[in-house]
Amino acid sequence: MRNYLDITRFLLGWLAIIVQFILMIQNRQADIPETIIRFFSFFTILTNILVSLYFTSRISIFKNTSLSKLSNSGNLTALTAFILVVGLVYQFILRGTWQPTGLQRIIDELLHSAIPLFVFLYWLKFANKTDLIFKNIKIWLWYPIGYFLYVIIRGHFSNFYPYPFVNVIEIGYSQVFINAVIISLFFLFIMWVLILIGNKTRKS
């Protein structure tokens, strides 16, 4: 069953990412090189790529490649926390900021709703006690920190900010810093909740 779910998520994840990339190129508001950079500036895209790489590493033909390191203890829990934050922030903060239609709406729901839910249910069923050790997970905290730094630095030179809560032009550096701290604490909270849930239902 797990192999089937791995393949399903592998196909679903890469399909959503590739189609989103095509849609963004087709509807670009800047030249192609800038559009590509902007595509990879969205936390949603980066996190979905990381999660898709994890499931790629689960496919048998990739298990003996460098991708296999993604299956190390703690990675599944950290990636589940990140994709859950993607989904929750979108549902409660960003959903009302635009109204996609047609194929864009389908891909939008896949990236922000269906995939986060799928990954959480997958984690709930397959995470074991080695996935729940915080010292194996904490290195991943550099990921959102590095992302915020990248967005702020690049935004300073490009005036492009992928999300309203990191838009220095609109809300200023102080508020962006406060938002970054809040979201970082939210990441920690989600990880703590996952570890708590996992420890109550963990498998040996």
Give a verbal description of the structure:
The mean pLDDT is 92. This protein is mainly alpha-helical. It has helices spanning 2-26, 32-39, 43-58, 75-94, 102-126, 134-137, 142-158, 168-201. It starts with a helix and ends with a helix. The protein is built from 8 helices and no strands.
Concise structural overview:
By secondary structure, the protein is mostly helical.
Which short descriptors sum up this protein?
single chain; 204 residues; mainly alpha; 8 helices; 0% strand; globular
The general outline is globular
Number of separate strands: 0
Rg calc: 17 Å
For the terminal residues, how far apart are their CA atoms? 19 Å
Q: Strand pairing plus helix content: what structural class? A: mainly alpha
Average pLDDT number: 92
- Uncertain ranges: none
Element-level helix/strand string: HHHHHHHH
Chart the SSEs and their pairings.
Blueprint: H1 2-26, H2 32-39, H3 43-58, H4 75-94, H5 102-126, H6 134-137, H7 142-158, H8 168-201
Helix pairs in contact: 1-3, 1-5, 3-4, 3-5, 4-5, 4-8
